[in-house]
Amino acid sequence: MFFSTIFAASVAALAAATPVKRGFGGRATFYATGLGACGEWNNDSDYIVALNSEQYIGGYPGPECFKKIQIWANGKTATATIMDECPTCSYGQLDLSPSLFNHFANPDDGIFEMTWDYVN
Predict the structure, then answer these.
(1) Cα separation of 23 and 43, whole Å?
(2) Which CATH superfamily is domain 2-118 in?
(3) Helices (H), ranges, the chain
(4) CB atoms within 10 A of CB 12
(5) Residue 5, pLDDT score
(6) Which residues sit opposite 78 in a β-bridge?
(7) Tens digits of per-residue pLDDT, 17-59?
(8) Cβ neighbours around 84 below 10 Å, total
(9) How far is Cα 113 from Cα 73, in angstroms, rounded to an integer?
(10) Cα-based distances in Å from 1 to 15, 35, 76
(11) Domain boundaries, the chain
């Protein structure tokens, strides 16, 4: 009984720390940061993203601003913050800060496929 209680608590703690897989994803590109649609200045070295307009929903700041996401691509993962809107991105796509893009791919590639989800 004691073991099953400890095991259940461990599983619950792990589930709370793991993002829920919603299957968002698609193309990742990068852009020069600055004053974002969320109303704050950012630097190219920050791990931030511009969320596609359909998921950004609009507003100033939009309801998705400042939310953390987890990104998976090319055998790597990173956590980033939604700080801007990408009007040219399709649903599921993200525009990444240059340093975040560099984490996953060579900037000369200009694009890569990724998946992402919100961090709980």
Answers:
(1) 28
(2) RlpA-like domain (2.40.40.10)
(3) 2-17, 53-56, 98-104
(4) 10
(5) 42
(6) 71
(7) 444 445 898 999 999 999 999 999 999 999 999 999 999 998 8
(8) 26
(9) 7
(10) 21, 55, 38
(11) 2-118
